[in-house]
Amino acid sequence: MKHIVKILSLLVAISAFWIGLLQAAVVPRTHTWLLPIYFVVSLGCYGLLMVGIGLMQFPTCPQEAVLLQKDIAEAKDFFKHKGVDVGSD
Amino acid sequence: MAEEKESKGEKKYKYSIIIPTYNERLNIALIVYLVFKHLRDIDFEIIVVDDGSPDGTQEIVKQLQQLYGEDRILLRARAKKLGLGTAYIHGLKHASGDFVVIMDADLSHHPKYLPSFIKKQLETNASIVTGTRYVKGGGVHGWNLMRKLTSRGANVLAQTLLWPGVSDLTGSFRLYKKSVLEDVISSCVSKGYVFQMEMIVRATRKGYHIEEVPITFVDRVFGTSKLGGSEIVEYLKGLVYLLLTT
């Protein structure tokens, strides 16, 4: 099944649950009307939290740049002796 | 060593490494050297798909062919810049390996990770092994805070909308079983890095077994940048397209 269908079914299920809550009036109706807003806001907050956490934990590798320069020097040296012209730009 | 392999019934696999190039005269030589350095006991071929580079990339490749052999380095050029997706398809046509590796020519993808891709695939029999920059053991160098922010934001958005099953959607350092690449690539129509996203998402939807290995990504050492334009808009359009059609 296409992904969008999965997402839409999920939304339909959540909406059905919400309408059910409205009709059953187990929770006071004023609260229930606000639930979609709470849902969207929490989703947004969750997203921002994930971005923030990801940003803090973003893996960096400064040593790789150094290693790369070494590799480049090694390769250039190799090619100089083999007659392949790899002069720098 | 050979006896051990035979008694275990291990097959010797061949790997085709497709590298699309455009104005990568210096980098392609460096990449080829590093691939040969890190894949000593592996049967492989490098397929350079050059889109008519004006800087003499093809001349360098021909010199490399003299040095390493025309059976190890294949030059399959095209007349002009025709895009990444078609470059892979073009390279695929000439690939004789059991597995196909795609990687960038600008040294952001380091050939030293090739053995870990191969090992992971052999261990898990995965259909696709994709490199991820975003897990422990991987990483990025050369990105400022803004770049990291957009990358992370884009990733969270894509994860929420698409449930892709991989941590790095736009990465293009991947190993595919040849038949799997042929199958997935035939159903992809996007361009640029959205194409990379489409490939991995379609592969997930088709149920292929995908594994990840950490890789490090050093941004743009040599060569001129080929990225430009309003990337964010393209990215969002790509996300919506993938949301609706996969």
From TrEMBL, chain A:
Assembly information from the UniProt record: Component of the dolichol-phosphate mannose (DPM) synthase complex.
GO biological process: GPI anchor biosynthetic process
One GO cellular component term noted in the UniProt record for this chain: dolichol-phosphate-mannose synthase complex
Broad class of the protein's primary localization: endoplasmic reticulum
Its membrane topology: Multi-pass membrane protein
Keyword Cell wall biogenesis/degradation on entry: no
Metabolic or biological pathway, per its Swiss-Prot or TrEMBL entry: Protein modification; protein glycosylation
Function (record text): Stabilizer subunit of the dolichol-phosphate mannose (DPM) synthase complex; tethers catalytic subunit to the ER.
Annotated keywords: Endoplasmic reticulum, Membrane, Transmembrane, Transmembrane helix
Tree of life domain: Eukaryota
Transmembrane segments: 34-55
InterPro entries: DPM3
Name this protein carries in UniProt: Dolichol-phosphate mannosyltransferase subunit 3
Subcellular location: Endoplasmic reticulum membrane
Similarity-based family: Belongs to the DPM3 family.
From TrEMBL, chain B:
InterPro entries (alphabetical): DPM1-like, Glyco_trans_2-like, Nucleotide-diphossugar_trans
Claim: Endoplasmic reticulum is one of the keywords in the record: yes
Subunit relationships: Component of the dolichol-phosphate mannose (DPM) synthase complex.
Compartment annotation: Endoplasmic reticulum
Glycosyltransferase 2-like domain ranges (all copies): 16-184
Gene Ontology biological process: dolichol-linked oligosaccharide biosynthetic process; GPI anchor biosynthetic process; protein O-linked glycosylation via mannose
Protein name (Swiss-Prot/TrEMBL): Dolichol-phosphate mannosyltransferase subunit 1
Gene3D superfamilies: Spore Coat Polysaccharide Biosynthesis Protein SpsA, Chain A
Task of the protein: Transfers mannose from GDP-mannose to dolichol monophosphate to form dolichol phosphate mannose (Dol-P-Man) which is the mannosyl donor in pathways leading to N-glycosylation, glycosyl phosphatidylinositol membrane anchoring, and O-mannosylation of proteins.
EC number annotated for this UniProt entry: 2.4.1.83
Organism: Microthlaspi erraticum
Native organism taxonomy: Eukaryota, Viridiplantae, Streptophyta, Embryophyta, Tracheophyta
Enzyme class: transferase
Transmembrane segments: none
GO molecular function, one term: dolichyl-phosphate beta-D-mannosyltransferase activity
Main subcellular localisation: endoplasmic reticulum
Pfam families: Glycos_transf_2
Keywords, alphabetical: Endoplasmic reticulum, Glycosyltransferase, Transferase
Pathway the protein takes part in: Protein modification; protein glycosylation
Catalytic reaction equation(s): a di-trans,poly-cis-dolichyl phosphate + GDP-alpha-D-mannose = a di-trans,poly-cis-dolichyl beta-D-mannosyl phosphate + GDP
Listed GO CC annotations: endoplasmic reticulum membrane
Similarity section: Belongs to the glycosyltransferase 2 family.
